[in-house]
Design goal:
about 70 residues; alpha+beta; 5-stranded mixed sheet; 1 helix; about 20% helix; globular
Length: about 70
């Protein structure tokens, strides 16, 4: 199972998908792409102490992806 977490003001949201289920993968991928269009940054979380990093495309094999909203400065 994969988890897509989107951080935001109204609260954090979570979408899960089974990499073997095309409908679930497509739903999570579309949510990922919609957030990226809004300026969100995506990070892949790795397990067992391995360092994750920023990603630019949806990875259906990822265990966890975190979407962070754009930072506004002033």
């Amino acid at each position: 199972m994969g988890i897509l977490r989107t951080l935001g003001l109204p609260g954090d949201t979570k979408i899960t998908w089974d990499p073997e289920n095309p409908k679930e993968v497509e739903f999570a991928k579309q949510a990922f792409e919609d957030a990226k269009k809004k300026g969100f940054s995506a990070f892949k979380v790795l397990t067992l102490g391995r360092k994750g990093g920023r990603i630019y495309e949806f990875d259906k094999k990822a265990k966890e992806i975190i979407l962070i909203p754009p930072v506004a400065g002033g």
